[in-house]
Amino acid sequence: MKLAMFGTFLALLLLGGYVSMKQTRTVGDFVVGGRSIGPWMSAFAYGTTYFSAVIFVGYAGKLGWSHGVSTLWIGVGNAILGSFLAWKLMARRTREMSERLHAVTLPELLNRRYDSPGLKTFAAAIIFIFLVPYSASVFMGLSYVINEVLMIDYSIVLAIMALVTAAFLVMGGYKAVALTDFVLGLIMIGGILLFVWKLFANPAVGGFSAALAKLSQIDPQLAMAFPSEKARILSLGSLILLTSIGPWGLPQMVQKFFAIKEVEKIKAATWISTLFALIIGCGAYGSGSVVRLLFKELPVDPATGKATVDLLMPKVIATAVPEFLGMLILLLILSASISTLSSLVLVSSSTLVMDLVKPKLAPKISKSNEILLLRGLCMAFIFLSLLIALKKPAIILNLMALSWGTVAGVFLGPYLWGLFWPKTTRLGAWAGALGGLSTSLGVALFSGFNAALVPIGGAAAMLVSLVLVPAVSLVTQGFTEKHLDVVFGQVFAKEAE
Fold first, then answer.
1. Cβ atoms within 10 Å of 209's Cβ, excluding its own
2. How far apart are CA 252 and CA 106, in angstroms?
3. Distance CA 442, CA 349 (A)
4. H-helix or E-strand spanning residue 134
5. Residue 444 domain-assigned?
6. Spatial separation of the C-alpha atoms in residues 342 and 457, rounded to whole Å
7. pLDDT digit string, tens, across residues 152-197
8. Where in the sequence is the domain holding 7, given as residue range(s)?
């Protein structure tokens, strides 16, 4: 039965890609769905891209093991800051500015906002380099779960998922992603609600009140809504910042604002995405908060012989809930991961083609060949991610946090200040991007890629980027009123006077 459900799910994904393929005729269709995606599909695309196997497997399991119930604040932060505030502040301006500047990728938007082809090239390289390991971390988390629930070899699972993602995405592009994300999102909501209910009904957990009492006996910090130890406060705070503010600067999230059909639909999408994030985020972290009640020690990966936090949630799914529900949760994680993978691959490949290959190597490429190249690079990106995932580097959380923190650190300052402040300068944008990059990588390298410090480095990178952009802009030359008229429109340009 489990294999039949798994096979049916994959077949439906491929069908969605095939249907969307007939509507994908231009590069704009492939990359942003022709800017014709409605509020429900846009909101669900944002939410399913936000939450992937990394959240359920890497974050929920590891952080629940070390922090307990206080990890629920990450889910709350993801809903309020990462979803509601992101849509409220940035969606309308991004949609309008990207259309005015005829930009369909974030590097292209930065190039035209700051009149800097060099910044576009740098941004495109950052996206491709750092989203490959992020994609690999999603593949790893997904494969761990499928391996535990279906007992299929890890390497075989990776190969299957790579092939399905490639076929699904290459056929339909963004329209395929948005179309299936709505259905996948409904599966995620239903699955997580049932999972939390059954997990807390497990005798080892015994309900929320009993769980708090049992966690307190293991370690009082695990049962506290707010940890009292400074190290835990710093760790939790940096993770809330990284996972809630970080998406503001992630290209695969910003892309959803480019694609929404009309600015009037943004209000509805804001509330839909917020509710979605609250249910999924709190459900995932709430489930992870009780793993200490189900395991006395970390499970061992039979392939490496080492104990790993990455197997905590897969083991919970395979052993602590009924088989049918375990399979539904597998489909939930599969849904989130396929959406995230598709967005990562699409953003990276489109950026490489439109911001590097086309302007520098093939300026006269035809539209049909451009789409063909996009599809080919989608497959290449998936292959590179697959190679990394097969090596099982470190832990999933570490790999994801480094990629997420570095990319967000590079883009957050230039993108956010560029939307709101006409006086932001080219050198200010460069300072923010380079400062974010050096901070994230510097902390990671200096700490020896320490799992506790890498997320802190990512959070610090975002703050550095946000501070450097205005600081440098205040002492460097700005843009002409003519340029600002093009970027912001007449009303906003007057603010710069």
1. 8
2. 9
3. 27
4. helix 117-150
5. no
6. 27
7. 777 787 777 777 777 766 665 555 566 666 777 777 788 788 888 8
8. 2-18+33-398
